Amino acid sequence: MSIITTTKHTLTTSTALSLCQAAMDYAERIEVAICVSVVCASGRTLACANMNKAPILSHSIANRKAITAASFQLPSKEWQSRLSERMPILMALQSEPDFTYIGGGLPILIDNELIAAIGISGASEQQDIDCATAALQSIADFLQG
Asked: Class of the 13-139 domain?
């Protein structure tokens, strides 16, 4: 008999909220204001938070970064190098409302299985990446599987 279903793991809402807090704590340390979005493997929002004084558009950009990372199981910034010489594909992907190649979106994997993704926006691209990385470091022991 062939298998017709699969079991998927997902990040708990509690952990998603903890990731938001860890990202904001790091942002406070480096004195920036960010928006954070954590989505499940299907791209649905598990948790989000917007720091006071974060740019208004950063909320939706953080969500797009998280969805991009979840969709392809790659950091959102990875698309900059992957598509640097493939303009037609870049243009096509840019027409997708939930895609971005701006850094700050990271997939969350356990044992190479996508369980969620995080997106950060509001600071410089590198600071957004650093905030997302700091959040993932807060649960690093679990991510090792």
From this structure: alpha beta
